[in-house]
Amino acid sequence: SPRVVVIGAGIVGCSLADELTARGWTDVTVLDRGPLFAAGGSSSHAPGLVFQTNPSRTLTEFARYTVGKLGGLELDGAPVFRPVGGLEVATTPERWADLARRHGLATSWGIEARLVDPGECARLHPLLDPGAVLGGLHVPSDGLAHAVPAGEAQARRAIERGARFLARHRVTGVAQAHGRVSGVETDQGFVPADVVICAAGFWGPDVGALAGLTVPLQPLAHQYATTAPVPALAGAVQEASAPILRHQDADLYYREHGDRIGIGSYGHRPMPVTAAETEAHENSCLPFTPDDFADAWKQSLALLPGLAETEVSAGINGVFSFTPDGMPLLGEHRDLPGFWVAEAVWVTHSAGVAKALAEWLVEGQPRTDVHECDLHRFTDVQLSPEYVAGRGAQQFVEVYDVVHPLAPPAVLRPLRTSPFYPRQQELGAVFGESGGWERPLWFEANAPLAEGLDLPDRDPWASRWWSPTVAAEALATRRHGALYDLTPLTRIEVTGPGAPDFLQLLTTNDVARPVGRVTYTLLLDAAGGVRSDLTVSRLGEQRFLVGANGPLDLDWFRQHAPDDGSVQLRDTTAGTCGIGLWGPRAREVLQSLTPTDVSHAAFGYFRARELFVGGVPVTALRVSYVGELGWELYTDAATGLRLWDVLWKAGRPHGLVAAGRRAFDSLRLEKGYRAWGIDMSTEHDPVEAGLSFAVRQDKDFVGKEALERRPHDRRLACLVLDDPATTVLGREPVRVDGRPVGHVTSAGFGTTIGRTVAYAWLPASLGDPGTAVTVDWFGKPLAATVAAEPLVDPSGARMRC
Ligand code: FAD
């Protein structure tokens, strides 16, 4: 098996050694600059609370695996995990409502949970004042992980299989040979390796730098204090019996340490540890700053009055990692094959992450969808020190906040703007953010169009980051037409003599068609899972424009590109811009601006041409993600503003408006167009996702064999909520006869049909139209029915005219 070096013997390094050796990769050396196994990193100081429920299905899955694994492990006869349960309490109506939403998330991701009243909260956690809370969310399988023993127990299993753990080995360099990693330099000498995994915790950026890699995480200190003995806990024989407790309204959490209480706080000012400082820190434990803890103590007395009989006796400002989006960093260095990272991982997710990474290394890919954790999910502008520090600190601030799923990030904006930005501002755009790009959600200038629309009421949660103007923009698109800013969508130019064969092998549909054709196609991974969906436009014999989902697609292309120079790849996103001109009047508008014949006969559906529009050179694709006649029009960033202006001027007499992403989503849901990463991922195959039409059996492509062997036992089903006045937003559990059977992926109000459309994963047996289901909304079951799709214009006549 390959020689593997893991840098860091914290919980992640130990778990990786276990998961790799269990899969037959037994030549594993784990190096730590500290002693074993309390090596001095964050794991040495973590109180180890494992709350599994998370908005991210992937993180919940990782946590569930960690609980299952650690729950079965002992070190010298002592368990390393204590399943005391988890209790999150609410002291405000907003939090109480949010706990109902989190109950839904837990149910969606298969974690058993229940909402409990104040009396039950106090029964579960006797220190708690029932008068201080409105209720709680109880997850019986949550619990306490003892991070150091849990690491050691996994290390011992790995050592039995042949792994080595070397204390006091500090990695000082990363060596490479023949374009690959070849080992690490340490203060004790050179250690050769075929694979190096950086699991160095918050020192990750320092170790990454040794390999020329930016590891985008920000180390921040977080306060953890323990009390002197609490009289009410006197005589406690166990280390902990009450559930781990979260009081998120005050940014606090608690656990028992015998007759003492441990208190963690996220309520204090962010305390970033700069890159220059991290190297100097021998461990992750900085001196406690009592002033920063004063409010946490006050809030704790209100929730747990028995603490008045004691005092804070010890505390630390413990350091760990925060990424710009709060997710871990997993994957292989783009420019140094063999150098991997497993960074910014909580104890909670450690075993699940290690399993996924071990699968990735040994089997070629993880079985869990990890796109949210992929090291390469960020674009270059998101890798600046300012961005990483600013967004990392914001993650710290928001860690326990009630965050609306559609709320855009609040800091470090605008970062990237399209050439249309000034016009969008003039039109009163309300902006969201995507991949660092400002993206209009809707335009206040269109508000008058919403007056008089007969829209069902929306509840306050569903009304956030939404406006009746969204519906007006969607209707205006179907009636007349609209301009949509497509700039943030990733565009990749694939050129060279090898380009047709290269794309043909990577994608499921036939893309090597005549020049001028556009093809919707999929990328599958080797296991037949949907890795992405693309439009591939053949602009020349050896020139293709690929509309992709993000930086991960370029990465996939790079990994598979032949190394003989026959294929060139170029991400043209930032240097170009795009407008979706969609709606029944799109042709009249476009024709008035171009000498090229854009009639259906001359410029057919799913065709591409290069033409001039109002004097601007444009690549025009006759495709539409909203289900209307129209074109995607791409040009250089420098000519973008002119393109917007000429289209706007020509379009206004036809009733054309500017429309935002929320209208776009409403329209695409009505047409059944899937969003990769939300509706489907590598865990699903094209048959299950309803995309068989994009798979050609008469050609070879990556993932084909595996696809044939898959059971296709799930369906991405289209649900329509029965009551027009009900709405869901995504990730809610779906039930049949009260029993959870699946979860919603994306959802939105379909303006044309006057109901909410929700896509949901269901067992194949329940995916047929007519099946009655319910969708949980803050604990309330909303009636819905599986519908035949698409809901609008099934024949596609509106687009093919
Ligand atoms: P670490 O444990 O930091 O291990 C990294 C190791 O790399 C270190 O041992 C270090 O010595 C070694 N290393 C670094 N550089 C080098 C080098 N150049 N050469 C050799 N070795 C090197 N998580 C939870 O899930 N639940 C909690 O309740 C929780 N509470 C926390 C409370 C506090 C106060 C803190 C500080 C953290 C908490 N966390 C919690 C977060 C959690 O502790 C960390 O996310 C996790 O322990 C990180 O594990 P790791 O193995 O990646 O890193």
Q: What's the gyration radius in Å?
A: 27 Å
Q: What is the CATH C level class of the domain at 4-77 and 146-217 and 325-373, in words?
A: Alpha Beta
The total of helices stands at 20
CATH-level-2 architecture of the domain at 4-77 and 146-217 and 325-373: 3-Layer(bba) Sandwich
Q: Which spans have pLDDT < 50 for at least 5 consecutive residues?
A: none
What share of the residues does DSSP label as strand, in percent? 25-35%
Distance between the termini: 59 Å
What's the count of strands?
A: 43
Can you give the helix content as a percent range? 25-40%
Bound molecules: flavin-adenine dinucleotide
Estimate the mean pLDDT confidence.
Answer: 97
Shape: globular
Largest sheet: 10 strands, mixed
CATH topology of the domain at 4-77 and 146-217 and 325-373: FAD/NAD(P)-binding domain
User: Which structural class fits the helix and strand makeup?
Assistant: alpha+beta
Which superfamily, in CATH terms, is the homologous superfamily of the domain at 4-77 and 146-217 and 325-373? Answer: FAD/NAD(P)-binding domain
